[in-house]
Specification:
The chain is α/β, with parallel strands linked by helices. Helix 4 packs across helix 10. 27% of the residues lie in helices and 23% in strands.
Length: 607
């Protein structure tokens, strides 16, 4: 049994996130939540009495912001609190976090937050949410705890209550007994969660794959998983990220052998772009280079942060002299240099993009360089990655990606791996999680191919409530709030959905500012209105349209007579009325002329 520990010191976030984020709520753009669940619900009569409730608050309609809530009577635990990166139609948004408004008034019932591993889509919302739900203890293995503490240094909230656990620990959290099982992913200290409840045993895989030759750790504990299954599992919640891909996931050993061959035979520098959080890959690169007598330079704030934590915990082992700064690269022969950097997704400000575009402070691409993209392309990043590769090819260097050679292994189970997990756990109910809806469906079909009945496979939307009791369960039509909570970089506070809508309007159609001077008492127009366009038209090329808009405003002001609207000769001009009239009428005029709807901003100056 884990004993309470003193609160751990605070800690940072990797690059690009050095701010306190404004938090505001919005409905999911372009994806309405149906009033009826997406799965046809078979009517199941539940017995009377207390039931176990499971609610996925994020991760069942997207890849990211993973969060699962488990509740029995007055006891609640959360599994993961992750973020999701913004979509293209979310200008100015830094990331999205789960909506935990269901916990309002229930903060004292939260017994703990259990972390499966240290990727941001599982821990990124912690600084925003945990202080607002009573600061419950966070249970995380050493690598995850280290990343959470380091990231917390960028936030000015009270210290987090982090409990560093081992995968052999057993936690007693109210009505729940929580334990862990070792699983493989592409970051150390990845675990699945076992929750023994009054209704039965619930298992949550987290992100996982089966790898018989993982980097820096043991393969999954098949004996333990089978033992859990033998005792009986009421419900298994399983990762769906690669559920649509046939076969088994590639082993990290295959990648290690391929990387060793490339690094050993390279006649010039080797530059490798990958995720900072893909520590299994980073470990392989550093230790291969160390064994070949090569120097390794690290570039990217988040990359340096993750490597520092991994070295402190002993996950990465190399000679001190192996790691150098990018500024020191030219002090060694090209064939003795390996550079690991961020930016394999084509991110504009990441190191690899700056290197490719000659914007890096010290590094320039050379024809003799070998550049490796050691990551798959995240959906939505295809164009930016292709542009980056085109830029590198133009410079004449050798470029290698995962489609050419085995330089990347995914961190998520494929179809045959999922079949093995199901065969070991043998759950009564299966709940696919962590993926877009089509991935959940694909995951469910894998279970059906193994003999699970459709009514025992729950395909849920975010916020949809599942209920379980001894030997039984059902998918209900009850839903709790699960809409987007946006975080931007301006501060902390609630802002309406109008903010995002206005940003989209400005991005798509621009704005027109109409400046008018009026007499304070009568509302009579003084002088000519001024028209300013930003992002709508180039004013010098559209003088006729600008003059037409000015005439429209004049005509409007002559007709409105807002100062005498109430028949009171002493009444002052109603500026609110004037603004609304200008906004409506100028908007109609411009749409008629251009079939575009810019944002109209009336500015009234009283004289």
């Amino acid at each position: 049994m884990v004993q309470p520990t003193k609160p751990q010191p605070q800690a940072p976030r990797p690059e690009g996130n050095k701010f306190r984020g404004r938090v505001f709520h919005a409905k999911r753009p372009n994806t309405p939540h149906p009033s009826q669940p997406t799965q046809t619900i078979k009517t199941v009569t539940a017995p009377s009495g207390d039931k176990l409730r499971i609610i996925v608050l994020g991760g069942c309609e997207e890849v990211g912001r993973n969060c699962t809530l488990i509740e029995y009577k007055n006891d609640i635990i959360l599994i993961d609190l992750g973020l999701q990166f913004p979509e293209e139609n979310m200008p100015g948004i830094d990331y999205i976090i789960p909506n935990v408004s269901y916990l309002k008034g229930k903060e004292k019932n939260v017994r703990g937050v259990i972390i499966t591993h240290g990727h941001y889509d599982h821990i990124g919302a912690i600084p925003h949410i945990v202080p607002n739900i009573g600061n419950p203890p966070i249970y995380a293995l050493p690598m995850s705890a280290g990343i959470i503490k380091r990231r917390q240094e960028d936030f000015h909230t009270r210290p987090l209550n982090i409990k560093v656990t081992k995968n052999t620990d057993i936690l007693k959290l109210g009505a729940f007994t929580v334990s862990f099982f070792h699983i493989n992913h592409n970051i150390p200290d990845s675990v699945g969660i076992v929750i023994d409840t009054p209704a039965g045993t619930i298992c949550h895989t987290g992100d996982w794959k089966f790898d018989f030759h993982p980097a820096g750790t043991e393969h999954a504990d098949f004996q333990q998983i089978a033992g859990i299954g033998k005792k009986g599992v009421l419900c298994l919640m399983g990762d769906s990220t690669n559920a649509n891909v046939p076969g088994h996931q590639v082993s990290e050993k295959v990648i290690e052998d391929e990387l060793r061959m490339i690094i050993e035979k390279a006649k010039g520098r080797v530059i490798i772009g990958t995720f900072a959080s893909l520590l299994a890959r980073v470990k392989q690169i550093i230790e291969i280079s160390d064994s070949l007598g090569k120097k390794v330079a690290i570039d990217g704030y988040s990359m340096r942060t993750y490597i520092e934590i991994a070295k402190e915990l002993g996950f990465i082992k190399c000679q001190l002299s192996t790691l150098i700064k990018p500024e020191q690269m030219d002090s060694y022969a090209d064939d003795k240099i390996v550079l690991i950097c961020t930016g394999a997704q084509g991110e504009k400000n990441a190191a690899l993009n700056r290197i490719a575009n000659n914007e890096h402070r010290v590094i320039r691409v050379r024809k003799s360089d070998t550049i490796i993209f050691s990551s798959s392309v995240i959906p939505g990043n295809e164009n930016s990655v292709q542009r980056l590769m085109d830029t590198l090819y133009r410079k004449g260097c050798k470029v290698i990606n995962y489609k050419m050679m085995d330089v990347h292994a995914g961190g998520h189970a494929k179809k045959e791996d999922i079949k093995l997990m199901l065969a070991l756990f043998k759950p009564k109910y299966y709940v696919p999680i962590e993926g877009n809806h089509f991935l959940l469906r694909e995951n469910g079909m894998v279970a059906q191919s193994m003999g699970w009945k459709e009514e025992n496979i729950f395909i849920v939307d975010n916020g949809q409530v599942m209920e379980f009791w001894k030997e039984g369960g059902r998918l209900t039509q009850e839903k709790v709030p699960s809409d987007y909570v946006f975080v931007d970089g301006l501060g902390v506070g609630d802002v309406s959905q109008v903010v995002l809508r206005d940003r989209l309007v400005l991005a798509e159609d621009g704005m027109v500012v109409v400046i008018v001077q009026i007499e304070k008492r009568t509302g009579k127009l003084v002088g000519n209105p001024d028209i300013v366009s930003r992002g709508f038209i180039f004013m010098k090329d559209h003088i006729e349209l600008i003059e037409g808009t000015r005439k429209e405003v004049k005509k409007l002001m002559d007709q409105a007579k807002p100062g005498a609207a109430a028949g009171d000769s002493q009444a002052e001009a109603d500026t609110k009325y004037i603004r609304e009239q200008i906004r409506d009428e100028v908007g109609k005029f411009l749409f008629k002329k251009t079939e575009r709807r810019p944002m109209i901003l009336p500015v009234i100056i009283e004289v």
